Amino acid sequence: MRGHHPYPSYALSGVEWIGDLPSHWQVLRLRYACDLNPTKAEIKGIPSDTLVTFLPMEKIG
């Protein structure tokens, strides 16, 4: 890739199709990286000027 600077070290991701990742990155399950299926109370508590993206479950692989 043009303009891409390689990282100093890489480690196995443990996921075949991802391949090697920079060694300082972490591989997390999606459930630990974001809130899934927030409750109505949680949604109401989000300030109106906050950007929120909702993904339908069929779009998450």
Average pLDDT figure: 82
**What's the tally of helices?**
2
Q: Roughly how much helix do the residues carry, as a percent range?
A: 10-25%
Which secondary-structure class do the elements indicate?
A: little secondary structure
Beta-strand content estimate: 5-15%
Uncertain ranges: none
Query: What distance separates the N and C termini?
Result: 26 Å
Beta strand count: 2
Radius of gyration over alpha carbons?
17 Å
Query: What coarse outline follows from CA principal-axis ratios?
Result: elongated
* Largest sheet geometry: 2 strands, antiparallel
Succession of helices and strands: EEHH
Major sheet strand order = 1-2
**Could you say how many structural domains there are in total?**
1
Q: Quick recap of the structure?
A:
With 61 residues, the protein is largely without helices or strands. It has one domain (10-59).
Description:
By secondary structure, the chain is low in regular secondary structure. It has helices at 30-33, 40-44, and strands at residues 10-12, 20-22. A two-stranded antiparallel sheet has the order 1-2. A hairpin with a 7-residue loop joins strand 1 (10-12) and strand 2 (20-22). The chain starts with 9 loop residues before the first strand and ends in a 17-residue tail after the last helix.
Q: What topology does this entry show?
A:
Elements: E1 10-12, E2 20-22, H1 30-33, H2 40-44
Antiparallel strand pairs: 1-2
Question: Any descriptors?
Answer:
61 residues; little secondary structure; two-stranded antiparallel ribbon; 2 helices; 15% helix
